[in-house]
Amino acid sequence: MHRLLPRLVTDAAELHPAAPAVVLDGVMLDYGALEERSNRFARSLVAHGVRRGDRVALWLYKSPDAIVALYGVMKAGAAYVPVDPAAPAPRLAYIARDCDVAGLVTTSERATALDEAFGGRAPMRALWFADLADGKDAPRVAGLPGVPWSALAAESGDAFASPALEDDLAYILYTSGSTGEPKGVMLSHRNCRVFTDWAAETFGLTARDRVANQAPFHFDLSTFDLYSTARAGAALYPVSPRIASFPAAVAKRWAEDRLSVWYCTPSSLVLMLTRGGLEKQDLSALRVLLFAGEVFPNKYLRQLMALAPHARYANLYGPTETNVCTWLEVASSPEGDVPLSIGRACPFDETLVLDDSLKSVPAGGVGELWVRGASVMQGYWGKPERTALALQSLDIAPGIRDRAYRTGDLVRARPDGNLELLGRRDHQVKTRGYRVELGEIEARLAAHPAVDESVVVAIPDDEITNRLLAVVVTKAGAEVTADQLKQHCAVTLPRYMVPEALEFRASLPRTSSGKVDRRALADPQSPKESR
What we know:
The protein contains 14 helices and 27 strands. By secondary structure, it is an alpha/beta fold. It has a five-stranded parallel sheet, with helices on one face. The protein has a five-stranded mixed sheet with strand order 12-13-14-15-16. Strands 17, 18, 20, 21 and 22 form a five-stranded antiparallel sheet that branches.
């Protein structure tokens, strides 16, 4: 029981109830209030039929109440399912149906869009509206009861005994899927705690720290921000939705708030360096800077380390299915252009470099990275075939078999034992720190009646790792514009998956085997049509 994630808040509230837990837009929520309000919400969930093992979706922007909600869900014994707050309503409806959510926490202005997306047949038992704290009645969606946030005041804020166990699901994170549908990665309390406990200890978080939170809650980087911070009794400073899209505003706010711990994607940091005027800010409070999610170009990392030479830096690696599983302490500014390694396995996991026959490759050889250990996911929600492909039982040592996760990343061990990341085996790419299956975007484009063929390719970009280019062949006589196809994608895809550029071609280039030649598509000299 002591390994449950909400226990972190309970412990912090017992030690220092008046200490800041969350600070956002001038509003401070202390640990005592976070504990009390999450207990009230847990009781409200239970009163409306939410039980241990259920799922509750969160579709709302960052706020202190959003954090109350996710802790309350876990206290009730359920798993929270955070959905990109900027995602269109049909995507939320798909996810809600896919994992059969028992409840949804959102805001009242989304009610009409939700009613349309669900078509009058929503799977949950009730909806909670976090913006209705002033006694206003909650709207009904698809005939379901709505609960205003003000109704939580009627529930007790006393200690709530969660029925969950540490191997129960704590949350489900939906990632892009190659079949055209997102897939839900199932993570338990134990999966998360082994990483966040290790991170809090390794990077020395204390109650004096002020921790930045830029990652959205549907992105696995947020687990460090939320739970390592709570474990230390530190203060979490989420980026306000008002400034999240403006690198200069984020950089200025973090410096003014004297934040001591940052955990970001490299692309976020690069934008602060190139467009956010980070060099003008006072970074003397920065103590620890962690980055993950994509390769950090050395030229920008050198700039950052020159601005804050006193800080501690580390490169963390791991897909959503494992959270962080390897890490590298960056003790000095990198030289040249050879990317940093992803380091060695964290103490709670083991890395394996295997060939196509699932045999260990010789030292220095190229192989696929597999991960086994305590942080590895439970599987993909409702997708046993996908789970069986990703999680396989391997011969680890003579007489020892264990389950391991197939990352799809190609690596090799350097002479110092650190792992060098070489690329992907498939069509998965990173953009803005998000992992994207190009096949999901291609499937959406192919669904448009004017599209005959479509391929999406990634164009390398120093600032955001990759920009997405869609190349389209339309059906004979069909008329469609690039803007219309982008709007078509935006109906169901999150903003970061909508192609930034779209080109029309008479046909797609092919290799000698008849496959689409993706390299040729990325060639700026190849023929295009304007439209």
